[in-house]
Write a structure and sequence with these properties.
heterodimer; A: alpha/beta; six-stranded mixed sheet; 12 helices; 38% helix; 24% strand; B: mainly alpha; 71% helix
Chain lengths: 333, 302
C-alpha cells in the first residue's frame, strides 16, 4: 500500500523526517509518535502535496512525486484539525466533497447518504454542521474522507477531543473501515494503547526516524496474562488469597496485583504457559470449592514493547496494575 | 427470523433499506477538470447564496435587485416619454452604480475564499485531485462570472427596454455590446482585486472592510486629485490620474475604445494613445491579481 525509501524532509530549522524507510501493507496500520514526530509531514508527502527533500515514496504503487493527482483520487484524508464550514449541512458538504473527488452528481448524492449512514449520522445530517457535537463533527470528517470509496484512507488523530465512549466508537468505526468496507487505513495517534485494539500493524516514529515497525500480533502474543476472579465462601472468606496461595504452591507465576485500587485485590493475574495453566486454575478453584467468576486473557499493552529489556519486570508490573485500574473503573466497582 | 422473509424475495431485495452493508463504488471518476468545474459552479451559486442558508441569500439578492431597479425605471421613463434615446449610456451605467458593485464584490469575495481559510476547508480540496492552480482559477472565474451577472443584467434590462421603446436597433445593439465588453473587463478586474484582498485574511469582516476601503479610498483620492487638476487647468493630468483607481481605469478604457464619454471631471478622457496604457494597466492588474493568488495558495497546502 505504502512504501518509502530513505525519505527525508528538512525545513530550514528542523528535520521533520530523517531517512525513513517503511513498508505498509493492506489492513489497519497505526502510525505512532509524539507531537512533532513527523506524522503529519509524512501524510503530506504521501498525498503528493509536499515534495520530499530526498528519498522516494510510493502509495498504491504510484510514485508520489509524479502521480500526486492519481493518488489523491484513490485515497481519502481526514485532517487532524477542524475543517468543516458551520453554515452548511453535513449532506451538502459531503456531496460537494464527493464531487470534488470526481464523482458525478447522482453518484455523489447516493454515496453521501450511504457513507453518512455508515459513520452513524442519521436525521441530523440535514442540519447545519455548526450545531454538531465534537463526536458528530469527527464523523462528518470521516465521511468526507470515505465518500469516494478510496482504496486507502489517511486518518490524522481521529480520536482527538473525543470522550472515552466517543473514542471507543471511533476506534470501532476505524476497524470496520477495513473489515466491512475493505479500505486500508493509516491512522495516526500519539497514544499507543489506542492502536493496540484497532491496528494490525504499528509503525512508531520519533524525531522523524523509524523506531519500530511490526505487526500488533508480534507485540502482544509473546506471553499471555490471565486474569482470574473468584467468589468468597464461608470456608475461604478471602477466596482470592486462597487461590493465590494454592497456585503459588503449584509453581504458577503470579504477578504482583497489590495495588491500592478498590476491587483490584479481587483480581488475580498470572502468566499462562500453555493449555495446562488453564486446567490448573480450573482444578485449583474447584478443589477449594470456590466459584470462578471469570478467567480471561489479558493482552499486553504495546507500550511494554518499547520499554527497556532490562526493566521488563517492573514495567510489566506497572502495566498490569494499569490494566487492573482500567478493569476496576470499567466495572464501576 | 428467516421465516419472516418470503422465500420468493430475490437477493438484494430493496424492501429492507436498513443494514444493507457497505457498497463499493465502481462508477466513473471524472477527475481534475470535472472537480474544478464543480468547484466553479458551487462557488458561483454560493455568490448568490444558492445552496447556502437563507440569511446568506439576502444581501446578494438585494444588491442584484438594487442594480436592476434603476434600469427598469429608466426604461419605463424612456417608453412613457417616447424618448429618442435612453437616459444613460450602456457604458455609463456601471460607473453610476459603482457603489453597489463595490459592495457586492466586498461582500462576496470574502464569502468565496475567506471561509475556506477560516474553517480550514482548503486542505480538503488539496487532498483531492485538483491542484492549487485549479482552485484559484475556479474561484476567480466564479466570482468574475457572478460580477458579470450582476453588472450585465441591468444592461439586458436596458437593451430589452430600448427595443420595446422602438429605439434604433443598430445603435442600441452597438451600445449594448460595448457595455457588455466594459462590464466584462470590470468584472474580471474587480473580482481579482477582491479575491487578492480577501485571500489574505481568514476573517470575513476584515475582508469586507478591506475591499471596500481599497475601492472607495482609491476612487475618492483619484477623483479629488482630478477635481484639483481641473480647477488648476492642468487637464492633461486628469487622464493620467485616472489610472490609479479601478473604476476610473475602466472608465478610461471605455472612453478611449468603447465610445463612452468619460465620467471624470470636465469629461476629459484618455485619447487613443493614453487608452493603450489604460488597457495595458488593466490587463497587467488582472495578471498581477492572478499571480498573487497563485502565490498565496502555493503554500496553503495542508
Amino acid at each position: 500500500m505504502i512504501a518509502t525509501e530513505s525519505l527525508s524532509k528538512r525545513f530550514p530549522r528542523v528535520t521533520a523526517l530523517d531517512r525513513l524507510s517503511v513498508d505498509v501493507g493492506p489492513g489497519v496500520t497505526g502510525l505512532v509518535g509524539a507531537n512533532g514526530a513527523g506524522k503529519s509531514t509524512l501524510i503530506k508527502i504521501l498525498l503528493g502535496l509536499s515534495p520530499a527533500t530526498e528519498g522516494r515514496a510510493e502509495v498504491l504503487g504510484l510514485d508520489v512525486a509524479a502521480n500526486g493527482a492519481a493518488i489523491r483520487e484513490r485515497v481519502g484524508y481526514m485532517p487532524e484539525h477542524d475543517c468543516l464550514p458551520p453554515d452548511v449541512s453535513a449532506t451538502e458538504f459531503v456531496v460537494h466533497m464527493a464531487r470534488m473527488s470526481g464523482l458525478p452528481v447522482a453518484a455523489a448524492r447516493e454515496r453521501t447518504a450511504d457513507t453518512l449512514r455508515h459513520v452513524g449520522l442519521y436525521e441530523e445530517r440535514y442540519r447545519p454542521i455548526g450545531g454538531y457535537s465534537t463526536g458528530m463533527k469527527q464523523r462528518v470528517k470521516l465521511a468526507q474522507a470515505l465518500v469516494h470509496d478510496p482504496q486507502l484512507v489517511f486518518l490524522d488523530e481521529p480520536t482527538n477531543g473525543l470522550d472515552p465512549v466517543g473514542r471507543d466508537e471511533m476506534l470501532g468505526l476505524i476497524r470496520r473501515i477495513h473489515t466491512d468496507f475493505g479500505i486500508s487505513v493509516l491512522v495516526t495517534s500519539h497514544l499507543l494503547g489506542e492502536l493496540e485494539r484497532t491496528c494490525d500493524h504499528v509503525v512508531v516514529v520519533d524525531g522523524g526516524k523509524l523506531l519500530r515497525s511490526s505487526s500488533t500480533k508480534d507485540f502482544t502474543q509473546t506471553t499471555t496474562t490471565l486474569a482470574v476472579e473468584v467468589t468468597d465462601t464461608d470456608e475461604h472468606p478471602d477466596g482470592t488469597r486462597a487461590v493465590r496461595e494454592a497456585l503459588h504452591a503449584r509453581g504458577v507465576d503470579l504477578l504482583d496485583s497489590a495495588s491500592g485500587l478498590p476491587g483490584a485485590g479481587h483480581l488475580l493475574l498470572l502468566t499462562a504457559r500453555g493449555e495446562e495453566t488453564y486446567d490448573l486454575v480450573r482444578d485449583v478453584v474447584a478443589d477449594l470449592g470456590l466459584g470462578l467468576v471469570r478467567m480471561e486473557q489479558r493482552r499486553h499493552h504495546i507500550s511494554e514493547v518499547f520499554t527497556d529489556e532490562a526493566s521488563e519486570d517492573t514495567s510489566e508490573a506497572s502495566q498490569n496494575s494499569d490494566a487492573q485500574r482500567k478493569e476496576a473503573v470499567g466495572h464501576g466497582s | 427470523m428467516a421465516v419472516e422473509h418470503p422465500a420468493a424475495a430475490p437477493p438484494g431485495d430493496q424492501t429492507r433499506i436498513h443494514n444493507i452493508g457497505y457498497r463499493n463504488y465502481d462508477g466513473p471518476r471524472l477527475g481534475r477538470s470535472y472537480a474544478t468545474r464543480s468547484l466553479y459552479s458551487q462557488s458561483l451559486r454560493g455568490s448568490y447564496g444558492l445552496g447556502r442558508s437563507v440569511k446568506s441569500k439576502v444581501l446578494p439578492m438585494l444588491l442584484f435587485a438594487v442594480m436592476c431597479v434603476p434600469a427598469a425605471i429608466m426604461v419605463a421613463v424612456a417608453v412613457a416619454t417616447q424618448a429618442n434615446d435612453l437616459p444613460v449610456d450602456y457604458t455609463r451605467y456601471a460607473i453610476i452604480m459603482q457603489a453597489v458593485i463595490s459592495l457586492y464584490v466586498a461582500s462576496q469575495a470574502p464569502q468565496s475564499v475567506s471561509r475556506d481559510l477560516r474553517f480550514k476547508t482548503v486542505p480538503l480540496y488539496f487532498s483531492r485531485p485538483i491542484e492549487t492552480a485549479d482552485y484559484v482559477r475556479a474561484k476567480y472565474a466564479a466570482l468574475a462570472s457572478a460580477m458579470f451577472i450582476i453588472t450585465a443584467a441591468p444592461l439586458v434590462v436596458l437593451y430589452v427596454g430600448a427595443l420595446l421603446a422602438k429605439l434604433d436597433f443598430a445603435d442600441q445593439t452597438k451600445g449594448f455590446a460595448q457595455g457588455l465588453v466594459s462590464v466584462a473587463l470590470l468584472s474580471v478586474l474587480f473580482a481579482g482585486i477582491g479575491l487578492v484582498i480577501a485571500s489574505v485574511t481568514p476573517r470575513r469582516g476584515f475582508g469586507i472592510a478591506a475591499v471596500i476601503a481599497v475601492l472607495t479610498i482609491s476612487y475618492g483620492s483619484v477623483s479629488t486629485l482630478q477635481a484639483i487638476a481641473e480647477s488648476q487647468g492642468t487637464t492633461d493630468a486628469i487622464a493620467w490620474i485616472g489610472l490609479f483607481s479601478p473604476i476610473t481605469l475602466i472608465d478610461g478604457v471605455q472612453s478611449a475604445f468603447l465610445g463612452a464619454t468619460a465620467a471624470s471631471p470636465g469629461g476629459v478622457g484618455p485619447g487613443n494613445g493614453e487608452g493603450v496604457v489604460y488597457v495595458l494597466v488593466a490587463l497587467g492588474l488582472i495578471a498581477a491579481c492572478y499571480g498573487l493568488l497563485m502565490r498565496r495558495y502555493r503554500k496553503a497546502g495542508l
